[in-house]
Write a structure and sequence with these properties.
homooctamer; 227 residues; alpha/beta; Rossmann fold; 2 domains; five-stranded parallel beta sheet; four-stranded mixed beta sheet; 37% helix; P2CMN_synthase_LarB (chains A, B, C, D, E, F, G, H); PurE_dom (chains A, B, C, D, E, F, G, H); hydrolase activity (chains A, B, C, D, E, F, G, H); PurE domain-containing protein (chains A, B, C, D, E, F, G, H)
């Protein structure tokens, strides 16, 4: 048997990596999917005790998990739209990420991206409901797009928004396909393929509904662009 | 054995339907894929003899087939970009279809659609190279789009153009995905899925690279809209 | 921050586009999927107040949403088969769309298409239960098919009906694949592919179960064909 | 090491099963794909020597292989459309299989099925070019369909023909999808799915372009139906 | 509006084809999926009244539908494993179909096939639990396989059973893939592909879990083989 | 007809966008796929004349196109591994992008990314042949990874390298799947899916073999990080 | 009808193979999916009575089945994480299999593999939570990996762990993809493809979530390596 | 820039890993796909010079590469069926792997596996042409299967052979799907899925056509089983 590893905390049901910040500069995160509300609370508490000076983020929380977190961790801040919670002080924003979404149904993913960016030290400018079938709304915010350090563009269905936004500006752009749609959207596959095949150069893509991953990436870009 | 059918012409290697016009009002068409140049010539000649008063269309012609048609049927008119040829008088245009394409590589499919529309009695307004990553070109032709009786919108890669065009106007719109792209475009599948999931209502779709099918449909709409 | 946009109404949980009619000539529509019954009611009411002179359409309503709409908006007209509701006067019909369906299970999609056509100003002729395995029913309605300005053909399983109908007449035809089937129907993919590969020229296709999109398109064709 | 097996002939590059007839009552067959012309000739010769009283069938022969077979085995009978050859006496026909095909491009597969049926002892009635977009041709042969002991229905693109034929008669029906098509036909996948989802009961399906397999099956049904 | 069709019965929620027997010689069938228990009862009753002399079959019945059928139609005979019911006299068996299944989980599909065969006039020999990983069971029933007029072979997972059975005998064989499995079985796709690619010639395939379709086909073969 | 657009140059076979730099700050690029060598030369020459002060990039050049460019444009600089050429002065590097590749076969894509980065104003540190099956090579370059402003990680087969690199450092990381592999790599699909599902947060992905797109993005990040 | 087979036990709802040990040397196993708790108990009891001297294993047990087994078979030993139970003495371990898992969510599959190995006579060394994004944990256990007779490596998402482990040691390695993930993980397909395309030679793969199959295989290798 | 790594040899076009044996105990291997004949020769020569005492293996060699290797490295031993070559002494065999193949077309993959096993120190027993449609051949070699230390089972089309072999014996079994087949075999996908879903426990699978990977794995198992 190997020695206990000082870089992990053993909770019985999980060995928690409490050393990630040292390696990558990012805060600790709890991925809530498939965990019981009590497990989420236990991990949040452990990570917060090790790093009381910076926020811990919990994502993909069920309504039950959100309620238990609210009850057991009164200092936690809940974001029901993002299905997420934070515990501990959120850093001051460095740089700006514009989080752009196509439709109302994309709001949970956009909110997860926005909160992740804030927890990872970036600033956020939210621009919602600017789908490609109503260009006037998008053209009206052209300046806000150009002033950002990074763009996170969230869209479901055909996933066309990143191509249009990417043609308007040269700001680094991360596209997030969502599972919004039905039939031949195949759970977000259509939006994913659309974004991977974007005719606008310099568009990168993350997994379907992965607002968290896009947020981590964009915050890194925003922080180092503004330093 | 059944009686010879007066509605077909037996050429040995094929029984040609010479009665389609009576059923659907459309001209006769030869699909060149998988046929030898001599077979294309033989079918064109047969159909032209039966219907000397209206054009016969041959599509998907290889360079060899185009050359043999040019040599053996001097009255045929060739369209090398569309990989197509016609024999016999093309009807006067009724109504207008705007054929819109995203990029230079989409030209063969757009040209096939345009020629098909003309042969089927519609008028054509070609609008090329108006990809979504350069919106200014598209916005500059907004009036031409609105004045058409039907739109045929051709695009490969992410296939976003029909969504943007469909948001600008209420004209009936047929989207044609092309196999232009690489990698995760999967031979046009990405563009096809994008168009099927368009967030703009009232977008219909045909098979990948099927400029012919879109042209037949659009010409029918244009003709009856203008009658 | 940008100025409030007079073309949208901000309801807190959504910014509603109240300007679509000006751009495309179409009525306002609420897509009910993923919205709470109260949100559906709020958007219907807002859109109706802005445009009391023409119908607003709500689609993809759950049984709960239908019940809440009935309770809170007594002037709304419900169509339970289509899972839809309308509020405000439906326009007089211009032109005729024949809505053809293959089997009893396709009824919800056919009903959604038919109601959409009516709300968008087209007239409707419903032709149900004319699957390709019983040709006699289909041949009996051949004249009704030929007299329409546009056809909407709804079918699941192998999706063969549009090919057969498309061979009988030259009327513009929009095919709607449904998710009816099991096993290798893959949620409507089989019907979708069948329709995209139709051997009848001039068949266009919309997304799986997208009766609404087919209806918008067909109504536009019928209106301009009959003007 | 095991003993030489009297039921196989070892040709160095292959061990040929010369015992199949005893097990299944079927003649010997050489699948030509991936074999050199000389290998095809060698196997044909070996099988013919073992069973001079009944035909050996070679399928999927390249033009080169057909030429070498013609040169080296002058008693062989070639069928270039079916890309096949036979050596030895073909049995008298027992029962009748109607081989129905949708379009000219499906001819190679239909011819392979027809020749296979003959070699396996069934009789054949060929019915070609009866695609679903021209129902009149199909309705004209309704009696021939009903009089057969088994139907082999060959179609590419959307693969709708078996559904229509299957609705006209209760004769056992084997459907053969072909790779004819382009774009979203995905090499015959669309036709295959269409046939598997047929709304006509009692339709069975074989692999794409597998005229041989359908022929073996249909001949068995025809032989035992007529005995 | 067209005239009432004497070949259909209009029940309000469905137009029932009461003429199929005249066209194909098969009994009437109610596909229970997506129908309410009351609708199943109503259709069964109507079909039985029109054809009291032969059985009507209802398939894909939910436990609720089975219970309501038992309560409202006391003369109906239920087969809970097959999730099916019959009403009216089942014909005397003509010929024999061996229904072979690989594992216990395949029982519902095998039972649906067996009942369908009986209702369509064929005789049945059930051979269960003879998966390819235990060849001794399969080799023990070799004679029963060879004596049948047709084989229906039901298997999930890798779907290998038809290839092994097809190598043992030359009896016509219909393979039925089932959705039994997990992970990369993809809901029966793996078994379906395995059967379509069988190395044993003369294997035909139906849709995943389609015991009914296989039964219709096999009964037709058995009846005409034994006549 | 619309007025000539001063932002495009009409070459007959294409309308070239000569205004992209003004919109996005990026240089002009010619995508060589599907263009004749003469067309590539013509577009390169036109773009160079409009913007003699900065490099024009041509990618996806066939060996023929590379040869014709070398012959007709003696000032062009060729990069045969990247299948690319440049014309005009390459800007001084701002910031650093580490371009990391897994195997020798990934070299063309890595080279395309590296050249694109240089043309777009970023600096490059190439790190090759550091596949995950030989961790010692990767661990040896850990410092170079951490010092970069952005990482481009190129890998085929299972596409695991970005996950391992992403766990070593918090630098923004763009993953490029390549089509290197066979069988179940499905032309790069396996690597693409692996990268999209990376367990390392903050990994973004571009299309298969899209070294160009990754390069554009990474150069933007590097430039603004170093400003 | 055939004779009762002494190698099977007929329980009415299933014929149980009680002879597998004689053929393959493996213990009897009950696959619980799709079986009622009472059926699981009945089969466990029958197999235990026939082979009281060695353990019977039941896998894929629902919480209900686990509870009924605990109640009705007090001698059974339950493993809730593995969703499994055993009845009868587990053999002494021969050789060692290291069961390595990437994340907490992979625990059920790793536990199923571990228990299967023990029941099949192998010894187990569990190594958990060693995902590729935190290499230090993996490098810390390098010696344990090298000392094993076989490795079972369990991972979801991108499935990269087997490639990294396979590069560290030459011990035979079986990779198990899990369905852990979301979006483009497509139920474990991404991990499966990643493992099949591993750049580390000598990696073999089993079905998604198939801890049982990997365990059977690894125990066989460990037993014969240590004999 | 980092120091030269003593564990690699830099050939300009590639950095060759000359240290693998120390890590995994396996010989060096050159994967020929995508390399020029001269590159293959150069790498073979370099690896042989570093390790003259043991064989180097080159796989996936084109006919050109085989010819150049024969010309430039007269001591190399060529295996044209396996498309491979070795240079240096092959070790004495330890243990036995039975390499079983289904059909003649699978020979190249079986030969690659067999040669790989020999080069990696295992002994080989080849058993060819034992497809599941002719069980008698397979049952005749049952003893040879049971006496092996490991089985490599190679099959295309439906990939059923591993299930049947795996049911006959408890020897560890590695299945290799091949791309042999057409139509719905989808380049070996059907065989791959069949093997992953095998109903025989303890079957593991490698990539399509990956005889090399299976050979590496099987040799490791055979060596440690016989030590």
């Amino acid at each position: 048997m190997s020695e206990p590893d000082p870089r992990t905390a053993d909770l019985g049901f999980a060995r928690v990596d409490v050393d990630r910040a040292a390696r990558t500069g990012d805060p600790e995160v709890v991925y809530g999917e498939g965990k019981t509300p009590d497990q989420v609370v236990a991990i949040l508490r452990t990570l917060h005790e090790r790093h009381p000076d910076r926020a811990v983020l919990a994502t993909r929380l069920s309504p039950d998990a959100l309620a238990v977190v609210a009850r057991d961790l009164p200092d936690a801040v809940l974001d029901p739209v993002a299905r997420a919670a934070t515990l501990g002080p959120i850093p001051a924003p460095t740089g700006t990420v514009a989080v752009v979404s196509a439709g109302t149904s994309d709001a949970p993913v956009a909110a997860e991206a926005a909160l992740t960016i804030r927890v990872h030290g970036g600033g956020v400018d939210r621009i919602d409901d600017v789908g490609v079938a109503g260009l006037h709304r998008l053209l009206a915010v052209r300046d806000r797009l150009a002033e950002a350090d990074c763009l996170v563009v969230v869209a479901g269905m055909e996933g066309a928004l990143p191509s249009v936004v990417g043609g308007l500006t040269g700001v680094p752009l991360v596209a997030v396909p969502t599972s919004v749609g039905y039939g031949a959207s195949f759970g977000g596959l259509s939006a994913l393929l659309g974004m991977l095949n974007s005719c606008a150069p310099g568009v990168t893509v993350v997994n379907i509904d992965n607002g968290y991953g896009a947020g981590v990436f964009a915050a890194r870009v925003a922080r180092q662009s503004a330093r």
